[in-house]
Amino acid sequence: MTQSSEPSIAVLFHSGYGHTAAVAQHVANGAGAGARLVTIDAEGNLTDEDWQALDAADAIVFGAPTYMGNVSWQFKKVADATSGRWMAGAWKDKIFGGFTNSASPSGDKQVSLIAMQTLASQHGGIWISLGIPPANQKASSHDDLNHLGGSVGAMIRSPADAAVEEIFTGDLATAETYGRRIADFAERLRPAA
Amino acid sequence: MTQSSEPSIAVLFHSGYGHTAAVAQHVANGAGAGARLVTIDAEGNLTDEDWQALDAADAIVFGAPTYMGNVSWQFKKVADATSGRWMAGAWKDKIFGGFTNSASPSGDKQVSLIAMQTLASQHGGIWISLGIPPANQKASSHDDLNHLGGSVGAMIRSPADAAVEEIFTGDLATAETYGRRIADFAERLRPAA
Amino acid sequence: MTQSSEPSIAVLFHSGYGHTAAVAQHVANGAGAGARLVTIDAEGNLTDEDWQALDAADAIVFGAPTYMGNVSWQFKKVADATSGRWMAGAWKDKIFGGFTNSASPSGDKQVSLIAMQTLASQHGGIWISLGIPPANQKASSHDDLNHLGGSVGAMIRSPADAAVEEIFTGDLATAETYGRRIADFAERLRPAA
Amino acid sequence: MTQSSEPSIAVLFHSGYGHTAAVAQHVANGAGAGARLVTIDAEGNLTDEDWQALDAADAIVFGAPTYMGNVSWQFKKVADATSGRWMAGAWKDKIFGGFTNSASPSGDKQVSLIAMQTLASQHGGIWISLGIPPANQKASSHDDLNHLGGSVGAMIRSPADAAVEEIFTGDLATAETYGRRIADFAERLRPAA
After folding, report:
1. Is-contact B43 B13, C-beta < 8 A?
2. Cβ-Cβ contacts under 8 Å, D118 against chain B
3. Which of A67, B86, C159, D186 could disulfide-link to D58, CB 3.0 to 4.6 Å?
4. CA–CA distance from D71 to each of B72, B73, C135, D164 (Å)?
5. Chains contacting D with at least 3 CB pairs below 8 Å?
6. Residue C93: phi, psi to the nearest 5?
7. pLDDT digits over D23-33, tens only?
8. pLDDT of chain C along its 193 residues, tens only?
């Protein structure tokens, strides 16, 4: 991998209705010039170019909606498709993070984050936690950073009747801050030129 | 165990600052005349009478605050003290449920519920899920039943600066409804007289 | 649902290479005359008749290989396809259990079981733990019941180079015992005729 | 923190019967000259000097037996006692890893690792996965590295009737290899002198 000016961050996500895509964009915004969106399609597939981007990335940030208490099947299909890379150790020591969106404040999002974190560990990866203190006072609102109080990764809440444009500003800012954090660690962990 | 008119439900809980105790009382209220609070003290201990109540109970509902992403150590100390009963299979087929409280909407409460559910499984138990749909619309509020969107058990949120009297009405109603549900299953699963 | 002589148990599974299918058959054998295999195909789909069998079942036992630290995507696709039933509460109070197979003794199988258990909770279900003590002495072998020491559900180990016929006898017996246990609880929880 | 020749690795562990202590020693051996054992006593306490060692460490490796499907209460008591440091963000960006021991191959060890990983995330830490491929062939034995097939951290199996001297050589070698890996990342992530 050639040493460019910015670490390369792939935001690998599936979005069912556009909310997770919007969050992914904010993670990428935070991650800087080396960030790239890698979009899993409705059938759980990626292009060859997408796979090359994942292979070349210093860090991969997983994103998926939480459906029925776990990552969406399309995200899982991509996870299963990495088994050859797992066998070869191709992603060993890569940096990982993750975020998930669902309609409830909890909505079993944590199980999705555990699944993402376990996937990263299967690949022998390094996991970057959210690193943002929770906003958990009575006066806290969804305009605050990390108002859901996640720690493993970014938890996003989109009420069942909320349009993409209505995603809470606190959630989008959380996503952006987390993207920046992951890029910072990718920078620190890059092999010397 | 003699067959009384009501199934016996033990609400086994630890409370650091009184919030979890208040929730436990509401679970017990919902569970009816056969319910009994079993309070874990600040050193993680129970009395002999408490242990007898747990042994005799048709169902045990676990309750603990989530501290640092897991059940409080006092709750865990009691869990560890059940190892003799585990070895003897003394609690096999008992009915279990659980609830947890922390300051954030998520706050890694799910890990506590997973730990409680695993403890129940170690004992060869039956787990009763929350069974209440989430209130996850834009207009939903913390006065609604299951406004955090838990499913495994009852998730309660007490903001870091909230007094015991300020626990959300939706959370208390959730606890009560869940207590009733567990008692209903305990009734259905009682051995014939 | 008409009250037949045996509770109806649907063993809902996906199998990549035949091992999980063999285990599913043993769960069904244990569950008795009311048991039925419901096979998820390679594209993660079920037939209409399959869905009707699931809807009518007193209990559903989930089965999936653990791939990359979580249930296979095909299993997850079916889980996601239950969202309409989740919304309608159609499976509320149904009985659930689960099993998973992978090549390592651990292999992150527990994450799959947590995902299955959470799916059951999303539907407002009742989870039946394995209920078999672990065989964890020095002299224990894979011919023993529950030699992996699972508790939430049945953990099966098929080494990476093991044919379907080489699945350990202890694992198959564990599956059968667990199937019987789930059928017993389904019987006890059936509504009166 | 003064920049010494080796990164400082604190192996923070509780051991009930000596097995986890033996494993901790091997993690420390692997981690090199900067490693130090920090022993949680039978009442879940540490000395002031222990706390200073944790604060000063580049990396902390958590170790605990899995009792009743979760970390021992003594380990959890220390976790709870870190809440002041959590509030202050004192351990933010620290490196973490973890290992656990129990009598069964699985024995719900994964829940302990999830709990450790979540604790690390609560502190805003970086988690180093095991990074050792599983030995999961028919001919694999407990003399092999990672013969249980863990990924999140090191899983150790000590049969219920095994003395400390009987811990499997594969498990001890796994612990040592993992210690080295964590020290390597601690070295890479150290601030420049």
Report:
1. no
2. 69-70, 108, 111
3. D186
4. 11, 10, 21, 19
5. A, B, C
6. 70, 5
7. 999 999 999 99
8. 445 688 999 999 999 999 999 999 999 999 999 999 999 999 999 999 999 999 999 999 999 999 999 999 999 999 999 999 999 999 999 999 999 999 999 999 999 999 999 999 999 999 999 999 999 999 999 999 999 999 999 999 999 999 999 999 999 999 999 999 999 999 999 876 5
For residue C192, the model assigns a pLDDT of: 60
What are the tens digits of pLDDT across the range B37-65? 999 999 999 999 999 999 999 999 999 99
Nearest to B105 among A148, A151, A161 (CB): A148
- Are the beta carbons of C85 and C56 closer than 8 angstroms? no
Distance CA B86, CA B45 (A): 18
Q: What's the confidence (pLDDT) of residue D192?
A: 60
The closest alpha carbon to C163, from C14, C9, C17, C44, belongs to C17
- Return the SS3 of B14: strand
ipTM of the complex, rounded to two decimals: 0.96
Which ranges of chain C does DSSP label H, i.e. alpha helix?
A: 19-31, 48-56, 73-81, 83-88, 109-122, 169-188
CA distance C44 to chain B (A): 25
Closest by CA position to B63, among listed B34, B22, B122: B22
Which CATH superfamily hosts domain D9-189?
Flavodoxin domain (3.40.50.360)
Q: What pairing do the DSSP bridges indicate for beta strands B59-67 and D95-102?
A: unpaired
First vs last C-alpha separation in chain C: 10
Scanning A84-143 for CB atoms below 8 A from C yields 86, 108, 111, 114-115, 118-119, 121-122
CB B11 within 8 A of CB B36: yes
Burial class (CB in 10 A: 0-12, 13-18, 19+), D178: buried
What global pTM score does this model have?
A: 0.97
Residues in chain C with CB shorter than 8 Å from the CB of B96 are none
Q: Which residues contact C21 (CB under 8 A, 6 or more apart)?
A: C13, C15, C39, C164
Coil, helix or strand for D24? Answer: helix
Domain-wise residue ranges, chain B = 9-189
